[in-house]
Amino acid sequence: MFRKQLIDLLLDKPMTLARIALEVHQSHQDTEVDLEHLFRSLKHTGYQAVIQPAQCRKCGFQFNPGKLHKPSKCPECHGTWIFEPLIGIKAVQPPFQPEPAGAAVGTPAAE
Fold first, then answer.
1. Would you say 48 and 38 are in contact if contact means Cβ atoms under 8 Å apart?
2. pTM to 2 decimal places
3. Of 57 and 45, which is predicted with more confidence?
4. Is residue 69 within 8 Å of residue 17, measured between CB atoms?
5. What are the pLDDT digits (tens) for 1-25?
6. Buried-state track 6-26, b at ≥16 Cβ within 10 A, e below 16
7. For residue 94, what are the contacts with CB-CB under 8 A and spacing of at least 6?
8. DSSP letter at 100?
């Protein structure tokens, strides 16, 4: 799967890494590598990665938002009952683009 197709899959629809891997028919590791590369390249687009970090269901400890996979154990209470991180993409307003020189402003287009 092309990494750009991941944008369409995750746009305003957060999913876990396991669900994304299932949708794209790849291993968890390959999907995680593709997502990390995609997130680095999103800086140059009108999109932004949104990651809701993993959280312990027992004590509420929140893990590092940079980790895309589910941790095995909570460092605080040592519990294994953990919410997986949710990974999504949202559209952001593109940076201001000035009009090219010589473009008529406010002139209706000829039909």
1. no
2. 0.71
3. 57
4. yes
5. 566 788 888 888 899 999 988 988 9
6. bbeebeeebbbbebbbeebee
7. 46
8. P
